[in-house]
Amino acid sequence: MAPITVDRELNVDMLARLTRRVVSGGETRPVIAPFTGEPFAELPVSTAADVATAFERAREAQRTWAATPLKERLAPFERLYDAIFDRRMEILDIVQWETGKARWHAVEEVVDVAGCTLYYVRRAPSLLKPRRRKGIFPVATKAYELRHPKGVVAVISPWNYPLSLGVTDVVPALIAGNAVVHKPDSQTALSTLWTIDLLVELGMPAEIWQVVTGEPGEVGGPLFEEADYVSFTGSTAAGRKIAEAAAERLIGCSLELGGKNAMLVLDDADLDLAAHGALQACFANAGQLCVSAERIYVHESVYADFAERFVRQVKNMRLGSGLDWSVDMGSLTSLRQLEAVSAHVADAVVRGATVLAGGKARPDLGPYFYEPTVLAGVTEEMKLCRSETFGPVVSLYRVKSDKEAIFRANDSDYGLNASIWTRNPQRGWHLAAQLKTGSVNINEGYRAAFASYDAPMGGMKSSGLGRRHGAEGLLKYTEVQTIAAQSLIGFDPVLGMSYEKYADTLTGLLKAMRRLRLK
Fold first, then answer.
1. Is 256 a catalytic residue?
2. pTM above 0.90?
3. Which residues, listed in sequence order, are joined to residue 374 by a DSSP beta bridge?
4. Is 144 left (phi over 0), alpha (psi -120 to 50) or beta?
5. Which terminal CB of the chain, N or C, has fewer other CB atoms within 10 Å?
6. Is 290 a catalytic residue?
7. pLDDT one-digit tens code per residue, 59-94
8. Are residues 270 and 143 part of one domain?
9. Which residues pair with 265 in a beta bridge?
10. How far apart are CA 174 and CA 80, in angstroms?
């Protein structure tokens, strides 16, 4: 695995145009390319005052946007589907320069943005339309449910999937009639800015999607003070603080947080399929993926065969930094991630774990490269046993039964994603329902559930609150209002009845309604 030259620079004029969309007083900071460790762009930095300005602009724009007919609001997002595919080479280069990931893993982001956006374009009219609800009295009571936008939503997105997780949380908020103040991670803000630039070309008003950058200590407080709702993807520790801030103001929040996800290889699994699937489940984006597998529980009867197949494929993975299709795994995104991954592996090895593949950094390839790593003999006293590593590291464990596999998979503070590998789909469904995770994939690592946009996606336990995707992924950005009208009969005594007589009559009427199934 030799170093690969990064052979295309990003367009300087394009970068300058994109960065002007950040609400900032002018101070900048360099953005470091993970492939090289060198700066490749200058990003404006926002202050608390800039956040206030962003919210002021967003609130003014939101009033007009919310009053715009839904069909017109949807138009630029419908156009995005074709446009992002047509201009995919631009955004793939940006994503790779920002994150250091392999080309194929960047493609996943483009496909996700297109697919998720199209889903909400098609579903929004039915989800947002007024709905007739049953009133207390048939005919006499008419009740309707209306959906109103929250107002201005704060979206805080992470660095690992900057296009996918930045854009797909913002788009449904905008479609619902909100404006957004978005804080992407400063390392990977260009993906967001490129998408805004494209959407403005496609007809979206620029003011409804404001972008601020900077450190949480500077801009985090002002974001929470002004927002009508908060959407956050990131660490569990940060998520707890955001939940506290939202609770203090009695506003809603959705939080997709950490994971220590388990993969279960049953005794009837197709081992070649499972071993190949584990490569993607464990090492997509160098393992920097909240739904990636970090624990693999393998039935003892197939453990040796699975381990041999899996380790052989891991050792054959191609690492590198090319803006092409020649590598299987790219770089970690930052020195901080490299240090965290290295510390977890070193701690495990010192305490007795066995390295079956990988296990070391690769500075010969680039400053933040780390080999895809497989460990055995991981025990409870080791840091990576229960803590999220968020890198290309996975541990193998033997289990004696399905019951033990389920117990050990559930024995975690986290509950985001899991996968089960079996030749018997019914067996897989039965076991999947016993896992305490927000999503479970059968004979797939994470993509089947994540890309099923009509189904909600999120975490249980310390992996978060709320859901993205599905109806909830849009409706969480709305306030629900009930309007009910009464006619013919009311709730007070009529025809001179006493309250006692009316209570008896009402009781009899309600009992009759139940028998006639009128309610």
1. yes
2. yes
3. 357, 394
4. beta
5. C
6. yes
7. 999 999 999 999 999 999 999 999 999 999 999 999
8. no
9. 298, 421
10. 14
